[in-house]
Amino acid sequence: MSIDYKNCHRDTICPTVAFRSQLTKNINNPSAGFHFVFDDVKLNIGNGYNTHHGAFVAPVSGIYFLNFRFTISAGTSSSLIRLVMKINGELVSHTMSAFESHIVADSFTNINHLNAGDDVWIEVKESNYPFVIYGDQATVGPHSVFEGFLITC
């Protein structure tokens, strides 16, 4: 099988866009509508991540890889939390964790086309208490991270 590469020529040069941000403090019992602000930015090439409102704002249009990972500890039995990724206010990805008195690590990934200026953020859609979403822990590093990069424009 041969591949015809003549149609693969690109006239557009994509800039490098990548970010990685994490929580530094634990968040106790966030309620529905809570908007995460990942306050420790480790990488922000293209200046897309905004620590003031906790969202990634696409600096250029293109296909992006976006990921959120987190660690939660439940305080009692039957705790539930549903976290969502939103683009311009529309739900595009979610995860739901239901657990009984233990620690859960989870993540969700989204690959989506973003237009320049589109906002992407993570928020709590639904929850019951008690639970803690872990931030940075000195002995093991970050537990909750929001990250992404431009695949192609």
Automatic annotation (TrEMBL):
It is found in: Secreted. The keyword Secreted applies. Residues 12-153 form the C1q domain. It holds the Pfam family C1q. InterPro entries: C1q_dom (IPR001073), Cerebellin_Synaptic_Org (IPR050822), Tumour_necrosis_fac-like_dom (IPR008983). GO terms for cellular component: extracellular region. SMART domains: C1Q. Signal peptide: none annotated. Its main location: secreted. It comes from the Eukaryota. SUPFAM superfamilies: TNF-like. Keywords: Secreted, Signal. PANTHER family: C1Q DOMAIN-CONTAINING PROTEIN (PTHR22923:SF116), CEREBELLIN-RELATED (PTHR22923). This is C1q domain-containing protein. The lineage of its organism: Eukaryota, Metazoa, Spiralia, Lophotrochozoa, Mollusca.
